[in-house]
User: Fold these one by one.
Assistant:
Number 1:
Amino acid sequence: MQELRTSLVEALARATGLPAPQVDGMVGLPKNPAHGDLAFPCFALAKRDGKNPVELARALADDIALPDGFAAVEPTGPFLNFRFDRAAFITRTVQSVLEQGDRYGAGAPNDDVVVVDYSSPNIAKPFHIGHLRSTLIGWSLAKIFRFLGHPVVGINHLGDWGTQFGYVWVGCERWGRPADDDPDPILALVDRYVRATKLKEEDPSVEEAARDYFRRLEAGDADARAFWDYARTVSLDEFKAVYARLGVAFDHYTGEAFFNDKMDGVLADVEAAGVGEVSDGAWGVSLGDDLGFALLKKADGATLYLTRDLAAIDYRHRTFGFDRVLYVVGAPQSLHFKQLSALCEKLGKPYHDRIVHVPFGHVHGMSTRSGGAVPLVALLDEAHERALRALREEVTKRPEGLDEDAVAEQIGKSAIIFNDLSRGRIKDVHFDWDAALSFRGDTGPYLQYAHARINGIAARAEAELPDAVDGSRLPEDEAFQLAAQIGRFHDAVRKAAATYEPSAIAAYLLDLARQFSRANEVLRVKDAEAGIKEQRFALFVACRQTLANGLRLLGIEPIDRM
RNA sequence: GCGCCCAUAGCUCAGCUGGAUAGAGCAUCGGAUUUCUAAUCCGAAGGUCCCAGGUUCGAGUCCUGGUGGGCGUGCCA
C-alpha cells in the first residue's frame, strides 16, 4: 500500500512539476471506493496554471506514466482516480502478512526510548472504573510503541504518598484496622478513609491529625512508616490481581513514595537555579500569568505532587534516558503538566520539551447506588456474567465443547476494553452498563467473532495454504476490499502512535472485521474448487493475523473459538 | 473573572495534514440460515455538522466572536 502510494506520488510530481511532499498531501482515498483506490484532486494545480480543473484532470490522465502496480487512471470531474492492479495488490499484501506473521505492521528496532506513565491509582482507595481509562490507554500505547520498535518503559506511578494516607490512618486509629483474616482488607481501609474524610466536615481535628500523620511519614517516623507499609502492601496485592486479570503489566511500580528521599535534591535544584520564592509561607516558583504559581513546598514543609513529579522525571531521565515520557493522566491535570514542563525549562533541564501529557476525558455516571464508584472487579464480574448469559441464551449457534467460563471471561474483557479504547481519548464518557457490556454491533466481541470465525474455517473447511499466493484467483470486489483494508494496518498503527490514540486502531479493526464479514458471505472456502479454495483461505488467514496483531495492540488477547 | 476541553442522525460515536453524495453501531422497520459459528450479513428510514461572520476554487475540518456543557484556576492528587 505504502509503496504504491509513494510511486504514485512520484509519478504525479513528475507529471505536474509540483514538489512530491505537496503531492503527497493531496493524494487520498476516494470517499466512494467505487471511484478508485487512490485519488488526486486537481484544484490546486488548476489554480496554479489558471486552467479548468476538469480539463486538467483529463489532460493529466493522458500524460501520466502509470507506475508499476496500477491498472488504470481515469478522470472523474476534477479528480484523477487511480486503480490498483488488484490481483497483484492482493498477492503482495497477503504474501507479506503470511511472511511477517506477528510482525506484520511492526516497525524496525530503534533507540528512541519511550517512558509511559499510566494507571497510577491511589493506594488505600478503591481501584474503580475511573482508573480504567489510564490503565487501558497507557497499556495500549506501551504495546503500540513497543511494536514500532521503541524501547518502552512502563511505569505505574502509584499514588502511595500524600495527605490522603493520613485519613486512612486516622480512620484506622478510630475504628480499628481490618482483621488479619479479612477477605477484602482494602475495602475496610477504604471504609476508614471515607468515614474519616466525612468526619472531618464536623471535626477539624481530623484534618489536623491526618496532616500530622503525613508530616511524620515524610520525616521517617517508624510507626507511621509501618502503617504505610501495611496499607501499601494490602492495596498493591489487590491492584496486581486486577492487572493480572486484565492482562496489563508494568516494568516498574515506582510510586511517589519512591521519590521521597529525592525531594531535597529537587528543592536544591530549584534553589540553585534561583527561581524559588516564598509566598504566604509556602515555597514555589512563579510561572507567570498563564501558569500561575507552582507550589513545591507547603507552609508546613511537606512536599506536593508536583515536587515529586519533578523528582520522578529527573530520575527517569537519568535512569532510562528517555526520548519522550508519556503521562497518561486525565485532562483535568493539564495545568499540572504545563507547570511541570515550564518548571523543567526554568531549571534548564534538557528534557523539558519531551514531556507529553496524554489526556483523556472524564468518566461520568459510574457511581453505585450507594454513591461510591464501581469497583473494577465488579465491572469485570458483571461482564463475565452477561457474556455467559449471552452465550447460553442469545447465541443461536456455537461450537461444541466450549469452555464457557473461559470464553465468557475473555468476551467480557474484550467488551470492556474495546468500549473504552474505541472512542477518542479526550471526550468525556458517560458510563453506561448496557453500552459498555454490549456484545453486538461495533464491539470487542464483534472483532473476536470475526477472529473466531476464521479459526472455524481453518478447523473445518479442510483447506491448506497455497504454495504461492495468487491474487488473480480472487477477482471478487469483496476480496480486494478486504485485502485493501489489511494493507492499511501500517497506517492505522502509525496514526495511533503519532496521535497517542489507540482508538485509531480500534476504528481500523472494526472496518477490517466488517470487510471480513462481507467477504465471508461471498467467498466460501469449504466448497470452493481447488486452486481457488487455498487462495481464499490464505486471504482469510492474513485477515486473522492482522486482526490478532491489532487486538493485541489494544491489550485484547484474540480468542480462537466462541 | 481568566484558562483549557467538548458540541455531527432519536442515543453512543467515526470523520487522514481542508476535497467528490457527511459515515458506523444502537434503537425502529423489512429481508437473508438444508451449505466453513446468525455474537453475523443485506436493505429502508433517520442530518439547519450549536449559532453568526471570515479565509478559500472548496469548510464538519482553519480563523474571529457568541451560545450551551465539562474541567481547571497555590498549601489534594
Note: The first strand of chain A starts at residue 38 and ends at 41.
Number 2:
Amino acid sequence: MSEVHNFEKEMNRGFIQLVVLLLLEKPMYGYMIVRVLEQNGVVVDENTLYPLLRRLEEKGALSSRWDAPEAKARKYYQVTDQGRALRGSLLEIWQQQGKAIEALRQEVES
Amino acid sequence: MSEVHNFEKEMNRGFIQLVVLLLLEKPMYGYMIVRVLEQNGVVVDENTLYPLLRRLEEKGALSSRWDAPEAKARKYYQVTDQGRALRGSLLEIWQQQGKAIEALRQEVES
DNA sequence: TGACATACTGTGTGATACATGGTATATGTA
DNA sequence: TACATATACCATGTATCACACAGTATGTCA
C-alpha cells in the first residue's frame, strides 16, 4: 500500500516528538507545523501530529490557547519548562545514539 | 513503574533496527548482541531484540543459522544484501533527521 | 546440590503511527 | 452566486511494536 515500509516508519517515532519540542519554542498551531516541517523535508502526517500535540500537552510539555474565537479556530501550542526539560533528555538520548551509530559505521565501513 | 517515560522509549524504536543492521555485518546471536550493546551504553531489552531479529529475517534483511545443534542452541544472525539496502535507507533517514534537528537547535539556542 | 549465567521462546498489554472519514471556515475563480 | 480548493481541526479504527511477565533448557561454578 505505502511506499515507506514499517522499518522506515519506525524511524519517525522518537524524532517527531523532538522536532516538535524544538520547533515550539515559538508558538505555532498544528497545521502550520506540518507545513513548516514539509518545507524542511520532514513529512509528518496530520493524524500523527495532532494527537501528539494533545499528548504532549496532557503530559505538561506543551501549553495551548485558542486564537480568534469567532474566526477560523487555530490552536497555538508552545513549549513549557517541563517540555524544555523533556527536550533536553531526548536530545541527550539522540546524541548518545548518534555516537553509537557513528562508532558502528566506522567499524562496518573499514 | 518504569523510570523511563514513553517519550524516551519512543526514541529507541527506529534506532534499534539500525544498530542491529550495522552490528550484524559480523554474525552474532541475540544474547551476544544484547551484551555487546550494553557494553556500548545502549540498553536493548531481550524481549525487544529477539522479535526484532525474527522480523528482520522474515523481511529478508537478515539470515540465520543454528549453531552446535546438540549443545546449547545459539541462533546466529547476519545481514543480507537486502538488509544492507535497508540499512542504507535507514541511515539516510537518520542523517536527514540529524540535519533537521541541528538546524532547529541552532535557531532555538541562538 | 543448587544458585546463577546463558540463550531463547510464547503470550499478553499499552502506546503510537497512520488510515479513513468527517466538520467547519476561508478564499479564489468562473 | 456557485463550487472547488485550501485551511484547520477532530474522532475512531487498525496494525505494529517495545516491553512485561512467565517459562524452558543448558552450562558453569562453588
Note: The two ends of chain B are 37 Å apart (CA to CA).
Number 3:
Amino acid sequence: MNIFDKYLDNIKKILLDLSKKGDLILPSSLDGITAEIPPAKFDSDISTNVAMVLSKLNKKSPIDLADILSDKIKGQDKLIDEISVVKPGFINIKFKPIFWTNFIKEIIQNSKSYGINNNEAKKNYLIEFVSANPTGPLHVGHCRGAILGDVIANVLLFNKHKVTKEYYVNDYGNQIINFTKSVYFRIREISFNEPFPIDNEELYPGDYLIDFAKNILNSNKDIDFKNFNNISEKLTELAIEEALKLIKKNLKSLGINHDNFISEKKLVLNHEVEKVIEFLQKNKFVYKGKIKAPAGEDDDNWIEREQLLFKSTDFGDDKDRALQKSDNAWTYFASDVAYHKNKLDRKFDQLINILGADHAGYIKRITSSVEALSNSKGKLICKVSQLVKLIKNKKPFKMSKRKGDYITVDDLINEVGKDATRFIMLNRSSDVELDFDFDNVVEKSKDNPLYYVQYCYVRIASVFRHIGKDLKSDIKIDKYDFEYSKDEINILKKISEWPKCIDTSSNKLEPHRIPTYLFELSSLFHSYWNLGKDNPDKRFINDQKKVTNDKLIFLKAISNIIKSGMDIVGVSVPEKM
RNA sequence: GCGCUUGUAGCUCAAUUGGAUAGAGCGCCUGACUUCGGAUCAGGAGGUUGAGGGUUCAACUCCUUCCGGGCGCACCA
C-alpha cells in the first residue's frame, strides 16, 4: 500500500470531476502532478503540487486554486485532520491518528507484500554483471559492481519482476592464451624445476597460478605436459575451469549467485559472430574502412588499416568500431555484439549491464549495437560503478598488479566480512567514488551504518525475547482500537515512505537508497527508544512486564521493514550482537 | 584534443526521478549514562550547492559556456 499513490489517485479523480463540470482546465497529461513527502518542519503527511502545475492554464494564482482544491479534497475524506495551503502553492494534508492505526493494520496484515508496487507492469529483465576475465580471483575492483548488480537484481525481484542474472565468461582471445601459457610455466616450474619467466610481462605472475598448476597436475596424472603444443587446448580448458571455480567461490562468499555463465568461446564456435555480422551487413551497419587517428595522437605512431567496421557513429558514437583484427580474428567487441544478439533473441524486456568505471567508454558502442540489432532505443541500460578508494590506517591504499600488492575478495571477506562489505559498498550512489575505510568498516559503533541498523533490529528482538515471543512469526490481534502518539506517528510516516524508496530504487536502478532509508528509519527508532529513559510510558516493556498490542504491532512493523530492506541488500539481521 | 563522469558544511556523503527555509554522519562545542534498553540519545555552531548565463510558477537536479578532479580514447579484454 503506497499512500502517496493512493492519494494522488484521489486527487486526480477530483480533478477529472471538476473538469467534466467545466470548472477546471486540465493539460493533456497529468504526469507532472505528484504526491510527495513534505519536509519535516511542516507537520503534515502528504503534500501535492497540483495547484502550481494547473495555475497557469486556469489563469488563477496557485494559492487561490489550492484553496479551492483543498476544500474539495477535505470534503471527501474523513481521515484528513487538517489541510493547509502553503506558499508558493503546496497543499499539505495531515491525517487523523486513526489513519495511522488503519495504516499499520493494513501493512501488518499484508506484511509480505508491503513495499511492492502492484500498479506497474512486470518486466522480464536480464542483468549481466561481474563478467571478470577467468584468469584469476576476484579483487576489490570487481566487488562493487558485483554487489551493485546483485542488489539491483534483488530490488527488481522484490518488486515482482522476473530477473535473470548472467556472467559473460571471456574464455577466448589473447588474454586467455597468455593465461594458459602462464599456467603452463607454473606446471613446468613444479614438474621440471624450471624457474617461472617472471620478467615476461605478457604472463600472469600471481601466486594463485601455482595452486592452479598443482590442482591440474593432481587431477590429470595421465597427461604429459612436456610439449605445450600437444596439450594447449586441453590445458586452456583446465585452466579456465580452475579460474572459474575460484571466481564462483569468491562470488558465493559475497552472497552472489548467477543464474547463467555464458561462454564467449561457445558463441564463437557456434558461429554466432558470423551470423550477427551477416545480419548487420544486410542492414548496412557494417563496412570495410579505416579508423583515423584521434586528434592529439602522434600521427607517426598511427598505423591505418582497412578493416571491418561497425557504424556506431550512426548512433552517436565518436568513431566507428573494429569488428575484425588484421589477422581476421574477431575483436572482443564483435563477439560481444553476438552475445547481445543472443540476449535479444531470448526476448527479455530490458537488458542491464553493470560495468566498471574503466569500461565506461565502451557503453556507447555496445548500446549502439543493441540499437542496431533491435531497432529500439533504451533496450540496453548500462550502469557504471565508480572506483573504490581503499583506506587503511587513514591512508589511501594503492593496489598494483604486481604480486601480493592487491586485495582480493577473499582478503576482504576475511577481514571485514560479507555483511559489512555489501552494506558499505552499497551505501553510496554508484556514480560517486567510494571511500572504503577498513578501520571504520569493522568498527562497532554509530560511525558504522551497518551496525547502527542492525542494532535497531537487535533492540526490537530483545523486547520480544523478554516477553517470550518470536520476532519472526506473524502477530495477530483482534482489535486495532488504539491511537498512536505523535512520536510514534513520526516513525509510521517514515514507514509509509518505504514503497516510494523501493519504487525509486527499482525504477532508477539506484539501490543505494535502501541503506540510506534504513539508516534514517533506524535513527528515528533509536531516538524513540531513548525517550523511554525519562518517560516510562514510552518504554515498550511496562511495569507488568508486558508489551501492549499497539507497541507490539509497532515494533513488528519496524522490524519487518528492516528485515526486508536488509534482505534486499543481502545482509543479515542478527537478533543478538 | 575528444568522450564519459564528478564537484553540495572542515571531512565523507544524502536530497523523494524539477518542489517548500538544501539534510545526515564524522570532526568541533554543550549536555544525558556508576551499562538502565549507552554499539545509544538531546542540543549548538558550520552553506552564494565550483563560476557565469538560460529554461520553469519552482533548479543541487534540465540546457549552455567556462574552471577543477577521476576514467577512457587503435587489433587488449
Note: The longest strand of chain A covers residues 162-169.
Number 4:
Amino acid sequence: MAARDYGQYGGVSSALELVGERWALLIIRDLLVGPRRYGELAGGLARIPSNILAARLKELQAGGVIRRVPHSRVIVYELTPYGRELEPVILALGAWGFKAMGEPREAQIITPDSMTMDLRTAFQPLVAASLPPTAYAARLGTVELFIRVEGSDLDVVRGGGPADLAFAAGADIRRLISGELTPDRAITTGVVQVLGGRNELLDRFATTFHLAA
Amino acid sequence: MAARDYGQYGGVSSALELVGERWALLIIRDLLVGPRRYGELAGGLARIPSNILAARLKELQAGGVIRRVPHSRVIVYELTPYGRELEPVILALGAWGFKAMGEPREAQIITPDSMTMDLRTAFQPLVAASLPPTAYAARLGTVELFIRVEGSDLDVVRGGGPADLAFAAGADIRRLISGELTPDRAITTGVVQVLGGRNELLDRFATTFHLAA
DNA sequence: CGGGATCCCGTCAGATACTG
DNA sequence: CAGTATCTGACGGGATCCCG
C-alpha cells in the first residue's frame, strides 16, 4: 500500500511519491471541480480499471490528499485543504499539455470535468476583469457546460442556462482557444456553431479563454 | 514505445502522456539545472535502473521534451525550449511536496540537482531584490553548493567559492527554510554550523529562502 | 569507461467478473 | 452503487553483459 519511493529527499520526489502514480493526478483534476462519488469518478475516467481507482483513492486518502466523506446514504470523495493546494500544479501541467494537443485521436473522449479544468487553465482573469459579465452556454461534443464570467471570477457548471451566447463545437474548440483560428473563421468553417446570441460575443469568449500554442 | 494513453482529450492527460511515467519528471528536474550526460543522470537518480533511464530518455526525446546532443566525444541530454517550459510545473510540484517532507527516511539521499531545484523553489525574489548581493557556500550532507543571490536573481552551482557566509547542515536544513526553526535556534541546536562569515547572515539566508509548511 | 542493451523476475496495471 | 476478487500481460527493478 505504501507508495513506491524514489530514494531521494527532495520536494519533487516527495510530491511524486504522493501523487505520481498513474491516474492519481487525473483523479485530483476531477476533484478540483468538486466532490465526486466513486461512480462519478469512474465515469469521468472512462478507462480506469475499478481496482486501480479503489487503490488510488486509498493511497491518496492515506497521503492526506483526499477525504472520504459519508453523506447519509452516499459516499463522496473530496480534496483536503492540502490536496486543494495542488490546483497550481494541475493548472500549470494543463497549460503545458494543452500546447502539445493535436487532433483528438480515435477513442479519445472529452469529459465535463476535464473540459472545465481546461477552461480554468485558459481563463485570463486580467482580460475578463475589464469586460462586462457574460454567460455562455457551450456544447462541446456531448458535454454541456454553463460558463459564467463576472469580473475576474469564473464559474463553470454542468448543464445549460440563460446565456448571452450559446454555441456548439467539437474538440477543435482548442484551435479557437489557441488562436490558431479567429472567431470569424471558426464560425465560417463550421468549427463553432452559434446557436443563440450575437456572433460578436465569440470574440469576447476567445479573448477571455486564451492559451497560445 | 508509445506512451500509454488515458483515452481523454485534455490538457492534463496530454501532459501526463508525455511526462507522467515513473522517473520522467525527476529526469526533467535534473535537466532544468543544466545539460547532463547519461552517467550524470544515473548518478543523480541513484535508484533508477539503467534500462528505465534509457527508455525514458527515448520517450522524452520522441515527445519533443529533451534533445540528445553529441558533443565531440560525449553525448549530452538537454531540455528543448518546450521542455524548459515545464519549470513552473516542477517548481509548483516541488513547493507542494516540500510541505509534505518529514524527516529523511533511511537510505534517502540528497543530490546536488534536487537540492538546487529545492532552493530555486524556496527562493523569494521579491525579498531578495531589497537585499545586498550575497554569496553562500553551503555544505548540505555531502553536497557542496555555491549560492549567489544578486537582486532578484539566483544562481546555484556545485562546488564552493569565496562566500559571505559558509555553513554546513544536514537534511534538516528544511526546518530552517520552513520557518520551523529560527536561524538562532538552528545554530544553537547544531542543525546549522557556521563555518565562516557572520552568524547574522543566516537570517538573510532564511528570509531569502523560505517556504512555509 | 561512458552509454547503453539484455535478461529474468516481481509488482503493478488492465480487463472482467462478482458481491454486499 | 461502491467497491472486491481474480487472472493476465505489461512495466519497473536489479544485475549483468556488450560495444564503441
Note: The first helix of chain B runs from residue 11 to 19.
